[in-house]
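Narrative progress, year one. The postdoctoral researcher (J.K.) led the effort to move from monomer predictions toward full complexes, under supervision of the PI. The following entry was the first complex the group processed end to end, covering 1164 residues in total.
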Amino acid sequence: MSSSRAAESLLALNQQEELEDLPREYPLSTSEDEGDSDGERKHQKLLEAISSLDGKNRWKLAERSEASLKVSEFSVSSEGSGEKLVLSDLLEPVKTSSSLAAVKKQLNRVKSKKTVELPLHREEIERARTPLEQEIFNLLHKNKQPVTDPLLTPMEKASLKAMSLEEVKMRRAELQRARALQSYYEARARREKKIKSKKYHKLLKKGKAKQALKEFEKLRKVNPAAALEELEKLEKARMMERMSLKHQNSGKWAKSKAVMAKYDLEARQAMQEQLARNKELMQKIQAASESAEEEGGAEEEGEPFVPDVVNEVQVKADTPNPWMFRNHSGDTKEAEVQGDPEELAEPAAQEAPESEEEGPVVAEEILLKEFKERRSLRQKSRLNQIAKPVGSQEAKDLSSQEVLSELRALSQKLNRESHQSRKQELSSTRTVLAVQREEPAGEEEEPLLLQRPERARTLDELEELGKKGCFQNKELPRVAVEGQQLERNPSNHLGVPKEKKRKEQMIDLQNLLTTKSPSMKSLAVPTTVEELEDEERDQRQMIKEAFAGDDVIRDFLKEKREAVEASKPKDVDLTLPGWGEWGGVGLKPSAKKRRRFLVKAPEGPPRKDKNLPNVILNEKRNIHAVAHQVRMLPYPFTHHQQFERTIQTPIGSTWNTQRSFQKLTMPKVVTKPGHIIKPIKAEDVGYRSSSRSDLSVVQRNPKRLSIRHKKQLKKISVD
Amino acid sequence: MKVKMLSRNPDSYVRETKLDLQRVPRNYDPTLHPFEVPREYVRALNATKLERVFAKPFLASLDGHRDGVSCLAKHPKSLATVLSGACDGEVRIWNLTKRKCIRMIQAHEGFVRGICTRFCGTSFFTVGDDKTVKQWKMDGPSYGEEEEPLHTILGKTVYTGIDHHWKEAVFATCGQQVDIWDEQRTSPICSMTWGFDSISSVKFNPIETFLLGSCASDRNIVLYDMRQATPLKKVILDMRTNTICWNPMEAFIFTAANEDYNLYTFDMRALDTPVMIHMDHVSAVLDVDYSPTGKDFVSASFDKSIRIFPVDRSRSREVYHTKRMQHVICVKWTSDSKYIMCGSDEMNIRLWKANASEKLGVLTSREKAATDYNQRLKEKFQHHPHIKRISRHRHLPKSIYSQIQEQRIMKEARRRKELNRIKHSKPGSVQRVSEKKKRVVAVVK
């Protein structure tokens, strides 16, 4: 029975989507259906609401996250405790108290009677009663559709398994990132929503309006068809506005404001604003620019300062599966209201908090419709894309906007025909993979983003894609729960023939999907990743080619290793050869001695670049020594090596023989005390070879001084 | 069978005489004497520090003059004898070893403008404000004799300077014109003029003895050849040159002490650019004298200090000053190149060591070797920042210090202005002129 219920709930879901999406395509047949099913749901909701009024009696079942066979119709779960209720246990205390005799009797009677077992036997559950049920069963079994654990079909499991470890890892990482991003955006949205400044919001709105106008202008230039569509949407919005009394100050909020308006200037202004809004919406569209502005305004009113991601969630929520949405996020109720506009006039218990948001709700509806359309369009185009091989995608890189718009037009046409079927397909694909891979492709809430060439995918988009996948993942288990919740509603067997018809379609599509799933691997998310990788690879390739000859990295590593080795403190060998034993040429100090006098160098401090693989930090530079080092090459030297050589040659007698020490240290000019130095004469320089009597200055130029001169010098110094 | 035994050559360890030093065998294996550079660096650093510790250049002050000392002269034969003329016309002869005045002559009325000794050292000449040139005997008058000049020449104009030829009995005076005199005559052999301004000093070239240079108050330096009747050439500088001095070791080089605080070393063959501009003084340079080695010169300045410049450096290596020394008017480097004398406004002649930290007196050979080694080390490591800083550090009186700062700022401003002018004018329209070229106004032949 439960399985049939599940199937029914599925059907109901599909059906509902259709209703939301395409009211005009199945005008007659679905309308009855709609009424019935809606009535059912309303009834159920009412029940829920009533039951939830009493806090103690609230079901715990609603929070159950797993499907199980042991589901009673009366929502008594035998699961939580893990024990079975034994009747004798119940009876035991009764025995002691005599006052409960009547009850005892009753129970005994119950015991004696044979009743329907709870839960039912498997056969009984699985017995299909109606022909429709039979058909469904057939199909489900044929397809090995899991009834109890609706998460994965065997096929899907297989495909999951087919994913390589790396892929899975990648996917997981993506999902993680997406989740982090989502929470970040949510936090941001919350923060921004808290901002009380009216001025800020006004500015924000204005900015958005401007942006929308601009984009519409662009769209008009680039893609007139799409622009026209936008206009149509506006027209529709106008119609809606005319039909509804949203902005005519008739709502609860408006009435309350009207009371205040007498005294409060702001309230008056607010009312006036609303009226103006009404007027604006009711205005017939003349110029494209105006409409664009209005549209922008509508959009803003819907989500004034909610970030993209949040919007996205809502958008998705209303499209294929309202149940998914309901479970999803904090502002579920609101979304639910958006999801099925018919329910707007529902019990006050739900409606009360939202009464103030009536205006936005309508605007949202408009918006949502747009989104739906656009999404269907996108899906269309994506399908086309799927059909093409990956190589052709690459080739399409150069495709201009025209091609794109053509494609869009085509897809629009196709859309009309196969819209519903696609919807079904989407909703019915509960597989993780399929959904993840089906969903993606630039699912931005930005209405005009479609105008971009498909190839222009950025990392951000990729992230968003990942996010979507994440949402889907989250939602999937809930679907089952919803299904079971639906089961609670006993009268869910309505519109059977319709469902049957649709079922066929759905199943066909499912088949199609499952068969296709392996080929779809190369779709949205993976392809984008690949493209990015391609770019990176290209760059790497280029670099590789540029530095073809030299292996820079290895060189660097080698260099670093050498530097590390060089910087390590060295052991000191203090062995004195010949000390305590014979020494000489060919004799080496004994190993024992060497070992004894070898001073192990202490382990130095860890290198600063220890954890930096592609950095060498030179630790040789000693800041204490810098103060003693020459910074610039001094004047007469032309090369630092020259200078270094002069510094490195020692001149002291420790390193030089006496003779060379004297030579090295002889001053350039030697003057003797007490000797008058006469001005130089021509003879002194060697122009005329007259002996020099008073040589008191010795120019240090040994080559020029003849031996005779030296002798003279000696003589003089002796004197 | 071969018996191994230790055998040594006595030549390697036995000294020839008892007076020889004991031979110390040394192993010069570099591995046994590591860290040569650091060790030498430390030695150099210590030597530099010790140099500054021992830098006490001031030796003596010779007092006795009753007015500012206007001129100084060295005795060509005796290191211990110095002659000085004062602004009150008094000439004194000093014995440096005793640091005493050995003779004083009231030579002139008014200033003694110039004094010079004859190359043989037997007599000296003075010129004064009283328009006379007087020749005096170096030795004092014998007992009972009166103090009189050997010769007196009465001129028509005031003589401002005098210099004697290095080899011949010829001397030159300057004033209105440059006169070259024979000692035996009372009228000049020839007198040379170029322009009308008064000439402040005249100097014979010690090597090419026929050449002489003079500097006039119309900012020019004129070179003469004694053998010609006309001047050789002249160079006009920015400001007036007070005096010049020839390099005693390089015939063509002379240095001019200029009023613009700088000294200019010229090569007389190429006067259009000075070989070097020496700048450190903060006031007019009044006198300059070369060391007899020709490697340095000393300059006396109006800023109450004397500075020693290496010939090839534009910055001084040494500055001497004392609290009591006023404007230094004349300076001389003694002939043994060890001392510097300066005469200043406040009537004293001061004796300085030419090398501030040099040890005076006889040095043992080890001391000498050590000083030589230290000197060499200082030279070797002179570019290292610590050593450089220590060796360059000098104390200066506040007035000089602040003036240096001020002038640095002025100089920087001028430089910046020039740069800006170049930057903001049409490219090529403003040419950059080197500092050396800028100072020379013209060269006339």
